Amino acid sequence: MPEFVRPEQTTKTESTATEKAGKPKKVDAREMARERGKVKKAKPPKEAKAEKKADRTELCIFAFRLTKEQRDIIHAAAGPAKASQFVLAAALTAAAKK
């Protein structure tokens, strides 16, 4: 029976050193974008933003019930996604005239 002989192996350090010589270093995508100026570092909140939050007027909720037909009429008149603003403006206009 023939005897099994292992072929000579090269060390990984020799083969990988030559392979890696031409490859660029891997860099995180976020870091690359930051270098190009696309991603900005987080800034601390400004005092103006804190003042705006303090100056906000307290709001309350005013609600009323409608039938489905009344609701559909309001949505048709106001357009998509503007029914609440439309009803608020109409109610305030009507109240201001009296």
Please provide a brief summary of the model:
The protein has 98 residues and is mainly alpha-helical. It has helices at 12-20, 29-36, 47-55, 68-78, 83-97.
How is this structure best described in words?
This protein has about 100 residues and is mostly helical. The chain has a domain of about 40 residues. About 55% of the residues lie in helices and about 0% in strands. The protein contains five helices and no strands. About 0% of the residues are buried.
Largest sheet: none
Low-confidence stretches: none
Sheet/helix structural class: mainly alpha
The tally of strands reads: 0
Share of residues in helices: 40-55%
How would you summarize the topology of this molecule?
Blueprint (H helix, E strand, L loop, with lengths): L11 H9 L8 H8 L10 H9 L12 H11 L4 H15 L1
